[in-house]
Design brief:
single chain; 88 residues; mainly alpha; 3 helices
Amino acid sequence: MRKLARAHSRENPRSLSFLPPVPAEASAGQRWKYQRNMVIYFLHKQGLTQRFIGDVFDLPHSRIGMIIREMRAFEASQRGQADEDDDD
């Protein structure tokens, strides 16, 4: 069986480092949902369809779309802030 080479997160240009950490006071359920949403967004960025991701997580593809839009908006706002910081 052929082994798959895995890229380390430091080498992966599509890392999720722009996402905020989970707040310290977050409950176990909130941490689980946050991590699930991060995985959903990452899978979408890797090219999987919303319908497929929805089937995997047993969520309607409309909810998957909402999660992706929320994460995309947050990513854009973080990148916008980084650009403003570079201008200073």
